[in-house]
Amino acid sequence: MKEYNLKEYIGVNEIKGPLLIIRNIHNVGYNEMVEVVDEYGNSRIGMILESGKGYAVVQVLGGTTGLSLGNSKIRFIEKPLLMGVSEEMLGRVFNGLGQPIDNLPSPSYEEELDVNGLAINPTARVYPENNIETGISSIDIMNTLVRGQKLPIFSGSGLPHDMVASQITRQAKVKGESFCIIFAAMGVKYDTARFFIDSFEQSGVLERVAIFLSLADSPSIERILTPRMALTLAEHLAFKKNIHVLVIMTDMSNYCEALRELSSIRGEIPARKGYPGYLYSDLASLYERAGLIRGINGSITQIPILTMPNDDITHPIPDLTGYITEGQIVQDRELHSKGIYPPIAVLPSLSRLMKDNIGKNKSREDHPSVSSQLFASYARVKDVRALASIVGEEELSEIDRLYLKFGDAFEQKFLKQDYYERRTFEQGLDLGWKILSILPKEELIRVKEEELKKYYKNQAENIKDEVPIK
Amino acid sequence: MPELAGKIFKINGPVVELENIPPSLRMFDMVRVGDILLIGEVVKLNNEHAFVQVYEDTTSLKPGDPVYTEGVPLFVELGPGLLTNIYDGIQRPLEEIKEKEGFFISRGVSVPALNRSKKWHFHPLVKKDNEVKEGQIIGEVDETSTIKHKIMIPPGINGILKNIIHEGDYSIDEKIALIKTENSETGIFMYQKWPVRKRRPYKEKTPVEEPLITGQRVIDTLFPVAKGGCVAVPGPFGAGKTVVQHQLAKWSDAEIVIFIGCGERGNEMTDVLLSFPKLIDPHTGKPLLERTVLIANTSNMPVAAREASIYTGITIAEYYRDMGYDVALMADSTSRWAEALREMSGRLEEMPLEEGFPAYLPARLAEFYERAGKVKTLSDTLGSVSVIASISPPGGDFSEPVTTHTKRFIRCFWALDKDLAYSRHFPSISWIDSYSEYVDDLKEWWHKNIDSSWLAFRNIIIDLLGKEQRLLQVVKLVGSDVLPESEKLILEICNVFKNAFLQQSAFDETDAFSSAKKQFLMLKSIIYFYTKSESIVKKGVSVNEIRNLPVYQELMRMKSKYSENQLDQFDKLIEKIDADMKELGV
Ligand SMILES: Nc1ncnc2c1ncn2[C@@H]1O[C@H](COP(=O)(O)OP(=O)(O)OP(=O)(O)O)[C@@H](O)[C@H]1O
Ligand SMILES: [Mg+2]
């Protein structure tokens, strides 16, 4: 970071968690950067959270451990928090504050950007229009991912969200075009980070990945900065360098907890479950940093990962995320315990950008109807299963029994696939038809008559038998 | 340079506290903050300090920085050039900001809301020396190929028209008329300014009687809204609030549409912006954008401007209403507006009530919805503002403050259901939790313009849906096999109604919009099918046999099979029902 004209003070008046209160100073700029140096010369950065006449409240992003009232040195940098960025940062590993931790020399920077970014003018955006074939049917066929989309994975502790995210990155390589990955880890364990790094290495993309690690043992306040660093670099690469950038951020729940901690230390009035009322806007200031800009070739696609506390999708973290992102991929504990990988619950999952990016010339003409029919039929399975558990399978009507068969086949053949299995749109749709053909034609009213003629499998009897029924 | 309004004392996010304020500083005065002159508004005066909410990012403002007052409350500019435009929450034109500043929205940009250099062809309608009154239309401008922009005398001005300019091309900065009022002379321009937080005057409210035809079957047939009515659309994320509002912005028979993206996604505004110029309005044959004003204060844009965006939008809506137009305003989402209010209130350290919302939340909601309605305008024509407001309840729980308070001020409620959305039944408007109190006001219109059995048919289907609810309770416990055939038939008809009628794809070209006529014919066909089936079931035919009739498939597919210019197919459908039922040999 460059040197600026600095105003320095020694001593702070109060230290409260990650917050410093400093009085008797000159008037300082709101939201600007501060450098805080302890008596051993260790420096951390902070930001001015509140600026009043002659005082300031500073949040110290590196944590306040080791700071004393008397000997802390405060330097006001008189600039918002800036970050140097360049393409050289690909292939490198940084800590949560953007400092290299891979024992290599500091990369040289092409420009310095405000980590908070600026809102993209809606008139400058391009509506995302290229789907990404991930090879995973429950995503491609049911909740298609689109380049420039923000599509989070809602998961629970112990569910294989990391595997799903890494399978997507491995299988979704955009052919022939310039692409890269930015990986930001917030408050996760080293193992998680290691898993991703290994999987990047395995698929031979590691030199196209920039990694920001704020692991579980770093001060939680640091997590507030980490995703902003990642996204600032992403914007540089996407919009200045025309690169297709995929940003993976895990675990957003840890980010939100850091915000809650800070808010409660500041004594703010919380909205729900102790989270501040501005959590929505704060998350939006991250998630909206995705998309495409007119006349620029690059793009930012975001896959944030979050664990839902108690698997509760109505918890403020997934709830507010879902209100901002363009859909969500929801993982389900029940499918997981049935041994189904990827355990993606298709019904509560959604891709809002799917509608304009599938069908003729995009995937296949029958895609919209097939997915809609699979949703409708699988939703019915849930009701039939509930009924079967009360009256017993034998008491079900013939058609209901077919729905049970359909449901099992859908889970075991369609949802379930290998970590290394890559299905094309074509294969996924054919598989969908094969399973839909378990049901009588008359049930399939969401598909068009022409499509029924073309794709409905009359040899349905064959597969009915090959499907294992429990 | 305008007058000093004080010096910054403290900055806390979007709220800035001022000291050394002049005694003349008023509540809601518009101010310019700091050397880069950020736009703000005085929201609290207290002990010689003023509190200002700033509509732009406050980074780098310092205590001691000067603040200036404009001496007027926050206003919008109303005149030709609003239509097809896209504004931020405080009416800054986003296209022009992009031309000036590039892809990202930076701070302190000052661009007038209405283009000053564009010439409009003004056509005078009143001769000089006549007496003129406030609200009177004195001229016209073709604002777009479909909309005549009426040039009105601003409220509060009455007198003799001393002068009016000849027909010709003028910019909005040119004076077009001069009025001699009681004690002075006032120049009239093609545009006027109006403070956003104040409702525009009209003569009186009049009863609503005409439906806003939305082309969405579940809405027009089951839960209709009147022109001049208010609807709330609550639903959890992904339930379809935005798509419903987009559908209405596209296909409803309003003459003017104001779409406010209040704290929502940037891409959704881009979607509207890119698709509307290409979509053709079925009522006028012209691109939809020509009747539309967009206001985009997306979730990552400053939160104070989000709070203002709702007022900016409704003021523009009232202005077109005053010209005698039927205006539909969509606000997506009012929860984000309420949250902005909450955030401001928190920063002002006000006492919170439920879930941190300030005590004045219900009052603000009431004020907003009160600005909707059908009115007799100052110039004695009828105009209306309909409000369609989405609500994003935390966790999808409708018992939260914004939903419960809103319910007091609206008469139509489209409750979006998570389970319907999960099974991709769209629009996911629940036929159980939704209601419309406008049915009685609107039935005459349907009976006069479409068919005199509309209400009767509607009631039959509502009754069946009610019975289905009770039957499903039984089915849940014992399965449907034990039900008598007559009850199985009810379940089957409801199934047909839900799939063939209620469910409507926004993305299928034929299905996206159904005229009132088509809706009625579809409803009639289903009811006809029901009464016929009922009589043959009594004679021993099973529901299964009925389901297997070819006409059953035909019924299920009628929505996308019969387009608007094939409505005669419905007569044939009735014949087919007769013929197929005959086949069953009863
Ligand atoms: N009428 C419809 N026809 C087809 N699909 C629909 C319809 N309504 C909604 N959908 C589907 O549901 C998705 C979510 O809808 P929408 O974006 O309107 O939800 P929302 O309630 O506005 O959510 P949020 O509160 O997060 O903004 C759409 O992207 C679309 O795929
Ligand atoms: Mg929405």
Describe this structure in words.
The complex is a heterodimer of chains A (470) and B (586). Chain A has 470 residues and is an alpha/beta fold. Chain A has 13 helices and 21 strands. In chain A, the strands form 5 sheets. Chain A has an 8-stranded mixed beta sheet with strand order 9-16-15-17-19-14-20-21, sandwiched between helices. In chain A, strand 2 (14-16) and strand 3 (19-23) form a beta hairpin. Chain A is elongated, with a radius of gyration of 25 Å. The termini of chain A are far apart. Chain B has 586 residues and is α+β, with helices and mostly antiparallel strands. Chain B has 17 helices and 26 strands. In chain B, helix 4 (266-275) links the parallel strand 20 (256-262) and strand 21. In chain B, helix 11 (454-478) crosses helix 12 (485-502), helix 12 (485-502) packs antiparallel against helix 13 and helix 13 runs parallel beside helix 17. Chain B is globular and about 90 Å long. The N and C termini of chain B lie far apart (90 Å). The chains are: A alpha/beta (470), B alpha+beta (586). Chains A and B meet through strand 5, strand 11, helix 6, helix 7 and strand 21 of A and strand 1, helix 1, helix 4, helix 6 and helix 11 of B. The structure holds adenosine-5'-triphosphate and magnesium ion.
Give me the Rg of chain A, rounded.
Answer: 25 Å
Alpha-carbon distance between the two ends of chain B: 90 Å
Number of strands of chain A: 21
Helix segment count of chain A?
13
Backbone structural class of chain B: alpha+beta
According to CATH, the fold-level topology of the largest domain in chain A is Rossmann fold
Unreliable stretches covering 5 or more consecutive residues of chain A: none
Strand content of chain A is: 15-25%
* Coarse shape of chain A: elongated
The general outline of chain B is globular
Low-confidence stretches of chain B: none
State mean pLDDT of chain B (0 to 100 scale): 94
